Amino acid sequence: MILRYLLGISFMLILHITITPILSFAQVNRAAPPITQDITVDEKLGDILDLSQSFLTSKGDTITLADLADPQKPVLLNPLYYDCPILCNLVLDRVADGIAALDWTPGKEFTIVSFSIDSHRNTRRRTKSDGASN
Question: What is the pTM of this model?
């Protein structure tokens, strides 16, 4: 009796394991979210950046791209959100992986400039969260 019961349970378990993957389908949403429908990318390959563009540091100082980069070397601009839990780490990891595969060395043959594109936070708040003094 117990053997018949265990065989029945085993059969049901095997049936469940083999049929469930066939009946389970992932739903893929290929449609872009409505908020992104008006976003475009204007590629300007080969254009030269205006190195006089200014940015604010976490301490509130103004700095230009010319202060950060040698105009004779390529620059990798790495826009990031100041405070993002997942995407920024993925971007930084992939950039690091890509750089590791290069024969060039950052700072020697090219420059990497990472900057925040989060305009909703002010410098004073960033400075305090960084632990820097004003």
Answer: 0.54
